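Anyone else keep sequences and structure tokens together like this?

Example one:
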Amino acid sequence: MINIWQKTFTKIYPGVNKEAAWRIATDINRWPEWHGDLESCTMEEPFVVGNHFMLKPKDRKAVKIILTEIQEGHSFTDCTIFPGARMYNTHALEETSEGLRITNTTVVRGPLKWLWVKLVAEHVTATIEEETEALINLVEQRT
């Protein structure tokens, strides 16, 4: 039995520029502009696999998030390490005939996944649609 919890959000946005969406989505230091629940997000290193950023939600402690996979211009996955579990978020952009498909998949694995799903992952996934809409609004303002 695989010990994972997973939730995916996907939506197609007609007429949205993929390159602009990628630039904004990967500009980690500016995430608080479109993530309403963040106090700060700081990445001092280049956006490459193995580097990390610090994400500080409002009213919570900052967490270290490591970039684990990047397909330039298409997707990236980040990982938060908790005691007894890891949470992965994959952010993907795909051009389709209907428009830009944005998909966010959150996966939590490990023996204490149940705890981190309740403490973190459920909140993270509950805000993804709202944050994606805010990202799209920002892309449309800038293009």
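And example two:
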Amino acid sequence: MKIAFLAAFVALGGSICLASGLPRGGPESQGVSSSALLAFIEAADRDIDAMNSFMLVRHGRVVAEGWWSPYEAEAPHSLYSLSKSFTSTAVGLAIAEGKLSVDDEVLKFFPDDAPAEPGKNLKSMRVSDLLRMSTGHQEEPKRTLDEPWTRTFLAQPVPFKPGTHFLYNTSATYMLSAIVQKATGQTVLDYLRPRLFEPLGIDHPTWEASPQGISAGGYGLSVRTEDIAKFGQLYLQKGKWEGKQLVPEAWVEAATARQTSNGSNPGSDWDQGYGYQFWRSRHGAYRGDGAFGQYCVVLPEQDAVIAITSGVKDMQAVLNVVWDKLLPALKEGTLPPDDQARRKLEDRLKGLSIRPQQGTASPSKMIGKTFAFPANDRKLESITLEADGDKDTTTIVVRSGGVDRRIVCGSGSWKRGRIALGPLPEQPAAASGAWTGDDTYTAKVCFYETPFQATLRLKFAGDELRFESQSNVGFGATKQPALVGKLR
């Protein structure tokens, strides 16, 4: 009863404020067309290979939000390089507290990790050069398990004068994280808890760390979609939140301004300049973003914030849909109520889903039989396909490294569980499977706290099983060589 009342109230243009969440409001009451929003969602669902979530905040109120099942509102999501903008915020706060300065030399913080004879360019490298990705490197320093990452960074040749050469450099952001930890005695994660995360109501943030116990800085932060939107709204409000200045306004201005040039292509959102771990964008916007399509887009001229998580290969394509479909929907003032379009939009948002695996073939006679694989670098030992008593699920039993791992697949739907696959540790995931040929079973596995989805294909032929696996995105090869097992 209460939920129905709230939904009706918002549909009439009212607004509500959820506990520790952003206020909600009807699109038209905030100058946004429901029909235009629907066109954006339909284009994103049709043209983008793997949208995970979307939230639009206008005039401080959430006017549209959706998750492509099995992704969900309460699940955190890996931000990848969108983490960099949070690290930048930690630097700004530490500067405001007098712990460090943008003019501090980087070597000052790591005397024990410096080369015996540092070069002139390394000596002149400052915190500001790290912030704007202008360290002077020709190549990004590698990060390995063999040596402290700060030492590796400082050992890298610096052929250009710092401040004169843009190079996107995740190791530079790690150095910012390490500097904050040196200056404050806390990891960036712990330092931001009382200063940023708790005031914004960002619960249970997690951040990957280096072997030395330093927050990775340039990647590794996981929070919810709404937390991304809150972060963007904080910056849109120039660092103020509920009447309190959490981040100095001067830092917000500097961090999101064009601090360095990084290209000249007017059609690319990666050539519009770079700030302090924020990208400048077309249309007067700025953003934090991360690999495979994680976005926090702030549009000051339209008083709007867009949060998106996705698992895409073409990140520009996502922003193109935003500019082509969503930007024109943001009007000045209010719009007349459009109940019919609003209901269509709400229904569409509620029904979003990553497409489960579909198939029409009948189950193979190979159900219940085990296929063993010769020694391989993936440590895959055997696969058994089980038809569960419940007709709506099929289980792939993968024996790897001496352990049986079960992937329970919904038939034409997503089945949630915890799944370990290949080198990936056990984590929340959902699976869907179907017979896509008389002797071929295909399964999709969606790790819904990440951008990653895997497709597994089991092709049975007599006493052989050909196993193929492929992921939607990756930093290297996304398709594994096929493995062939024999009927045991």
